[in-house]
């Protein structure tokens, strides 16, 4: 039995209609999908497994997505709940407008790998450029919202050159938009939506994007002039900063794969930074990550004192440290790890003393990432700085809270999630709660300077883990990356 999906959906209440798919043998539970799921595209009833999209869907890529998932680990139901949360957080009669990230070009026709704007991705799961999402609050209750998408039409000629597109029907029938339109119609339809809004939530970029269909020009038009405007990102930060179980699971998988890759790197001797860089990138991918989460720091010797050293083109020398700050990405969620170990695999006395001083402080700071501690990242930073002062004084450093920033110049941590520095602008002074995911990364960077003990000069040490805050104890997402001195030495 086959049903044309759109006509069936139209007879259902909006929130339920967008939750139902039709199977050839039964009506399945909301968002339960399998390769035999039947979808209607235009006038024909066809299997989604026979269609082409710009990103994986379960029907075409069951080896990547489970039934019901729009992106790895994240179900269509969770995306719908996220939109409901946003609508519930907005004022009555408000509209949120989001624009997909533009494709960025390296030079000429050579483009960078596409990366969707994080808030757009978090709300829709849509991973294609030249798209606009509009979420309109329609009532006081949870789920009272209308979700519209403006996307690129499928075009065989364009797709032959530039790859497949999701298309308008997919925006509605897979990504569950209440209405889906061609991005070419945004000029005529979006002004009407904005005109009826009491308040428009949007993050207008300071510089116009490259898309010819950018909606931001409408915000200064007479059609939208009467509507008050407010930034969207503060609302989104509050929603995104507390991670769901599925988000944490993705980050844990990224942490597990990444931690094992870094531990595997410690087992081997390395001569060139770029070889270690290539090894980690390969290990992330071959073991299941989408790829590296960011350009890694692969530093040897005095370069370990450069916090964001990423050229990774020098040589390692005996008697020096290797500092790696690297992590993989899984299902668009990242992990962030830093480890430091001797080039030879064996710590000298001075290396051991300084390393264990940093490690002791890091362990203490990690232990504070629990809801019951009622601390913020800013609080933990202060505790970390005081701990480093005490440890370094015991090693002969003339250091105090007044000058510790000369040896520890960065913050102890930041929020992580879809981005390495997640929820930009969200305060580090907020008390950590269950579901917050952060890094804890104390470091000591000793320059060649007469102010500091001679045998530590030139050493840079950073030890970083990704942590999910729980009620009574931290959930360490990166535990597979070894960090105890005896464990590191035992690897070789």
TrEMBL record:
Write down any Gene Ontology CC term: mitochondrion
What positions does the domain Aminopeptidase P N-terminal occupy?
A: 74-211
Read off the SMART domains from this record: AMP_N (SM01011)
What is the superkingdom listed in this entry's lineage? Eukaryota
User: What Gene Ontology molecular-function terms does this entry list?
Assistant: manganese ion binding; metalloaminopeptidase activity
Choose any GO biological process term that the UniProt entry carries and state it: protein processing
Q: Which InterPro entries match?
A: Aminopep_P_N, Creatin/AminoP/Spt16_N, Creatinase/aminopeptidase-like, Pept_M24, X-Pro_dipept-like
- Enzyme Commission code(s) on record: 3.4.11.9
UniProt keywords, alphabetically: Aminopeptidase, Hydrolase, Manganese, Metal-binding, Metalloprotease, Protease
What sort of enzyme, by top EC class, is this? Answer: hydrolase
What catalytic activity does the UniProt entry give for this protein? Release of any N-terminal amino acid, including proline, that is linked to proline, even from a dipeptide or tripeptide
Cofactor(s) essential for the protein: Mn(2+)
Q: Which family does it belong to?
A: Belongs to the peptidase M24B family.
The entry's function note states:
Catalyzes the removal of a penultimate prolyl residue from the N-termini of peptides.
- What this protein is called in its record is Xaa-Pro aminopeptidase
Organism from which the protein derives: Metarhizium rileyi (strain RCEF 4871) (Nomuraea rileyi)
In the record, what lineage is assigned to the organism producing the protein?
A: Eukaryota, Fungi, Dikarya, Ascomycota, Pezizomycotina
